[in-house]
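Posting this for the archive.
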Amino acid sequence: MAVYDVFLNNRQPKFAKELLINNAQRLIEFVFDKYKFPKDGSAKILEIGPGKGYFCNAVYRGGYGKYYAMDRNRKALENLGIEKDCIIESSLPDIPVDKKFDVVFVGFVIEHLSNGIELYETLNNLRNVLKDDGVLILQFPDCMKLGMEFYNIDYTHSLPTTKRNVNQAVIDVGMQVDKCVDISGILYTRIVDSKFLYFLRRMATACYSYRFFSILFKLFYRTPLWSLQNVFWRAYALLKEPNVMFFIKNENGQIFPI
């Protein structure tokens, strides 16, 4: 097995897959409306770290444009079922592409980099493949809120990501954070950048603890807490885990107030 096969083999039920594809469509629609990209299928879209293909499916369902994917895991790329010329088998910080993209989506990848220097090199290479009026969408865990949970989430997490340290690297490569959105879990609110809806979700899940519920229902629910199938952990990852989303423009870097 290759690195991250354990993630790919941990399949979601059909209803959850549809939920996550619709979730990705909400994000794409938001990006195309906010940055006024044409919805005629002419856009070029690159995803780095396609995972189980939710973003890929959303792009094709909406007819937003030509989709490309990059990953170091061959199985992840093959599972997408896209044309071979749209597949890039590589790992960050290298991005061996000679094309420019309107939208580049990097969801929960940079925390797997080894250090801040690799983050800088990655962002610099991302800037080189982004069109002048393009947008880079960067999602990552909020390590300031997660604490040690950051390492518990994934055995390949190695770079503790925060708004401040990621923003510093963005500035150093000459880009700027156009918008910062806090995310509770991996599901966006109905209005992606709504602070009010985010606040409501945080309040609704404030008292939820996957550890507490696992203990509470231990007599009836035997799946151990460390299992990938534990439903209390999955609920936490889906609805409460604190994450961040940066919308980054290919412009001169400016200081973003954290």
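Residues 253-258 have pLDDT under 50 and may be disordered. The domain at 5-191+243-249 is CATH 3.40.50.150 (Rossmann fold).
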